[in-house]
């Protein structure tokens, strides 16, 4: 299994190939790392050291880059001769001849960092996936593009941003314009509704007077109807264009239809029915008014100068006018009835007056805000204040002459005139507000339109300016970069001179870079000048050195051959001394073993003597113990004989007891017979006789047991007596044998003393022979060491001579390499002109 090897730190590997990729030169570090011989690489394709896993896309990219005469840089996986691999940060650049023609390619290889290796391994595993995938690394994305593309992208992004900002402002102003226009149309629509409500309320008042008996009001009612027809016609036309937009088209058409029906049927209705129809019609107008306010955005207007005006115009003044219209119609009907008026109508009038008062208070608060945020609303505020100031007089008039009186004393025409005047003032305020709102929304729409046009013009001008500026900047940067790149590439190819000037008088970062590049070129010029002088001398000196090294190498080779012959003779001498030393060492080891054996034999003889002495003592002790045992056995036999005699006496006693038992048993039988004859008187005696019979039987049984035991005892005694007699005979034989052993031990002890003396003399002789052999061994060892030292010295001389010879060959090769390097250096230096 292959394993990864590392390029040593601060090591640079280099390879040169021709145009088709065959290796023409390699440095020593690469040869050592790749494990190939130099001859195995030269003339072979660069693919020999490139790993087989190298993706085809990398090969294509290298071919494409080098085909464009550009350097290539990346990470390549290379292989060694043993199958191991190493990752390399590789830079491939073309190299040229003196005419600037491409001769081949130079591979400069350095070690790669761990993170770079991980990325390269991932790419080698999934090349297609990673090539087609999108990277989120900003550096990688940016580095893929040229400077011109980056600048175009930046300027394009700025232009797009400006277009977006300008377009956004235009859209905002467009929305403001459309919102203002929409609110303007809504205000105009509601103004038309306000006129209709004012005229409808007037018509309601005249019709109330006419239907309650005031025939003089008929003419005024017809006049109002004609005005309403005209205003309704304008309203209907406005509804046709804006009704659907404000989502009130159908409701507005229904209002116009209801008006026409009311106009036709009004004369035939009662005063109350006419009043209710007018109220229904006005409520429908108010609903449309609110819907238009919501759909046109009037209620959502954020500006304070219009917000409060819209609130008053749409949600407060129309309702106040409607309440005043109800007060007019209700009070007029009550006054016309006179004595026939109902008391409940007074209560209704008071409720309407309370509602009107509340509306006036609410509107007064809003008017304060209107006046605060609209300095030009003075006429509106004054008109409202005038109407508000007349309401208390109207309230007092109605209270005193209508409500407090049992029969109203106020004339209908007078009441109608006062209330109608107040209603007209309220509607007048509303119309003034609607007009001012229309003016404000018209002004806003015009301003938004002009602002949007201005933004569009400014954005267009700035965009054109950025495009021109972008073109000038890109051209200035790219022209400097192209010129500098062209000059440097010509210098590298040999078609340009090192004295080319890169100072364009630019004071930005690029100018600073070019200045330092100019300084770098000057330094290179100085180095090239020195190298040109040195390269020729180096080539000549290397040739002389090669000749000297060649002669020295021949001499050292001869010396190495002579040294090898001397070394061979010394090795033979060393081998002979070694054999002698081994023989003496073997003999010394044998003598040591003999000395050890004799010493052990001497020790064993001493131990035998001790053992014989111990055995003599033991045999005497054993003889004594055996004699005592024999006497003890004899005494025991005598005792057993006496016991046997006693056992015979036990038999006699047992026989006597058996006779007594038989007689007792017979006596018990006779007693039982006599007791049976005696009848009841002998019953107790019969029991005694029975017990005596049982006792006799037990005695007889026990006697038989004793007799059996006595018989066994006698048999055992007889056996013991026989054994004792045998034991006595054994002890006599043992005593005889012990006596024989004692005599033999005395003879062995005498012979052992003589053998011990002989052994001591043998041990002393072996010890002296061993000491002499040790002296001989030491002398042989010293001779061996001396021969070894001589052999080592000769071997060292031979090795040194061979090393010198080999180094001389290496030195010869090095001199040849220096010669080639000098020629190559001279060729490279001559590429640069100055």
UniProtKB/TrEMBL annotation:
Span of domain Methyl-accepting transducer: 534-798
Membrane-spanning segments: 151-172, 451-474
Superkingdom field: Bacteria
Keywords recorded for this protein, A-Z: Membrane, Transducer, Transmembrane, Transmembrane helix
Gene3D superfamilies given in the database record: Methyl-accepting chemotaxis protein, PAS domain
Pfam family, one: MCPsignal
Gene Ontology biological-process entries: signal transduction
Domain PAS, residue spans: 18-69
GO cellular component: membrane
Keyword flag Transmembrane: yes
CDD domains listed in its UniProt record: PAS (cd00130)
Signal peptide boundaries: none
InterPro entries the UniProt entry points to: MCPsignal_dom, PAS, PAS-like_dom_sf
The protein's name in its UniProt record: PAS domain S-box protein
């Amino acid at each position: 299994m292959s394993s990864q090897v590392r390029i040593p730190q601060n090591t640079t590997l280099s390879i040169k190939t021709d145009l088709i990729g065959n290796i023409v030169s390699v440095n020593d570090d690469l040869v050592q790392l790749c494990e190939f011989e130099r001859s195995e690489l030269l003339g072979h394709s660069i693919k020999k050291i490139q790993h087989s896993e190298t993706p085809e896309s990398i090969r294509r990219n290298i071919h494409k880059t080098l085909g464009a005469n550009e350097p290539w840089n990346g990470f390549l996986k290379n292989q060694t001769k043993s199958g191991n691999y190493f990752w390399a940060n590789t830079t491939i650049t073309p190299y040229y001849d003196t005419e600037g023609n491409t001769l081949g390619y130079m591979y400069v290889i350095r070690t790669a960092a761990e993170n770079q290796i991980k990325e390269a391994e991932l790419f080698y595993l999934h090349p297609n996936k990673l090539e087609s995938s999108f990277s989120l690394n900003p550096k990688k994305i940016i580095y893929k593009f040229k400077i011109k593309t980056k600048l175009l992208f930046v300027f394009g992004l700025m232009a797009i941003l400006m277009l977006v900002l300008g377009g956004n402002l235009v859209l905002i102003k467009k929305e403001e314009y459309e919102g203002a226009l929409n609110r303007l149309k809504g205000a105009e629509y509601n103004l038309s509704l306000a006129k209709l409500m004012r005229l409808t309320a007037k018509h309601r008042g005249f019709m109330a007077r006419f239907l309650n008996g005031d025939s003089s009001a008929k003419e005024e009612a017809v006049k109002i109807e004609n005005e309403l027809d005209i205003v309704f016609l304008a309203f209907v036309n406005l509804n046709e264009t804006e009704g659907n937009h404000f989502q009130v088209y159908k409701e507005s058409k229904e209002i116009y239809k209801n008006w026409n029906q009311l106009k036709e049927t009004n004369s035939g209705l009662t005063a109350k029915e006419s009043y209710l129809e007018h109220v229904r019609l006005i409520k429908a107008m108010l609903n449309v008014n609110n819907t238009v306010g919501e759909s046109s955005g009037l209620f959502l207007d954020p500006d304070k100068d219009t917000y409060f005006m819209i609130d008053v115009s749409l949600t407060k003044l129309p309702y106040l006018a409607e309440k005043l219209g109800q007060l007019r119609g209700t009070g007029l009907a009550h006054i016309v009835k006179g004595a026939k008026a109902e008391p409940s109508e007074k209560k209704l009038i008071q409720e309407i007056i309370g509602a009107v008062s509340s509306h006036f208070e609410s509107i007064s608060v809003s008017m304060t805000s209107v006046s605060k945020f609209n300095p030009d609303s003075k006429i509106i505020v004054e008109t409202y204040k005038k109407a508000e100031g007349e309401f208390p007089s109207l309230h007092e008039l109605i209270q005193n002459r209508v409500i407090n009186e049992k029969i109203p004393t106020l004339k209908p025409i007078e009441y109608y005139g006062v209330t109608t005047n107040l209603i007209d003032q309220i509607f007048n305020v509303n119309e003034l507000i609607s007009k001012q709102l229309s003016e404000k929304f018209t002004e806003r729409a015009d301003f938004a339109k002009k602002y949007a046009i201005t933004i569009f013009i400014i954005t267009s001008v700035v965009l054109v300016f950025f495009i021109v500026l972008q073109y000038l900047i890109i051209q200035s940067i790219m022209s400097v970069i192209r010129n500098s790149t062209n000059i440097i590439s010509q210098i590298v190819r040999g078609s340009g001179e090192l004295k080319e000037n890169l100072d364009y008088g630019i004071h930005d970062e690029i100018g600073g870079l070019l200045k330092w590049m100019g300084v770098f070129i000057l330094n290179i010029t100085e180095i090239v000048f020195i190298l040109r002088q040195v390269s020729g001398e180096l080539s000549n000196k290397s040739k002389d050195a090669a000749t000297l090294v060649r002669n020295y190498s021949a001499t050292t080779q001869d010396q190495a051959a002579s040294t090898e012959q001397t070394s061979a003779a010394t090795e033979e001498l060393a081998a002979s001394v070694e054999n002698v030393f081994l023989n003496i060492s073997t003999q010394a080891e044998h003598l040591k073993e003999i000395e050890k054996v004799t010493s052990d034999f001497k020790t064993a003889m001493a131990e035998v003597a001790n053992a014989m002495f111990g055995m003599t003592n033991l045999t005497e002790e054993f003889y004594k113990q055996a004699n005592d045992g024999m006497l003890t056995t004899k005494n025991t036999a005598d005792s057993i004989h006496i016991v046997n005699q006693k056992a015979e006496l036990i038999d006699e006693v047992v026989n006597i007891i058996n006779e007594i038992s038989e007689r007792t048993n017979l006596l018990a039988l006779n007693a039982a017979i006599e007791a049976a004859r005696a009848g009841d008187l002998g019953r107790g005696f019969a029991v005694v006789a029975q017990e005596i019979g049982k006792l006799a039987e037990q005695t007889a049984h026990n006697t038989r047991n004793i007799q059996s035991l006595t018989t066994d005892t006698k048999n055992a005694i007889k056996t013991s007596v026989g054994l004792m007699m045998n034991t006595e005979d054994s002890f006599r034989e043992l005593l005889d044998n012990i006596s024989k052993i004692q005599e033999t031990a005395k003879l062995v002890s005498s012979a052992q003393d003589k053998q011990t003396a002989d052994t001591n003399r043998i041990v002393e002789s072996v010890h002296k022979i061993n000491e002499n052999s040790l002296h001989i061994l030491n002398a042989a060892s010293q001779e061996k060491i001396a021969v070894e030292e001589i052999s080592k010295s000769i071997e060292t001389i031979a090795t040194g001579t061979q090393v010198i010879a080999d180094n001389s060959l290496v030195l010869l090769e090095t001199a040849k390499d220096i010669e080639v390097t000098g020629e190559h250096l001279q060729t490279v230096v001559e590429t640069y002109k100055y």
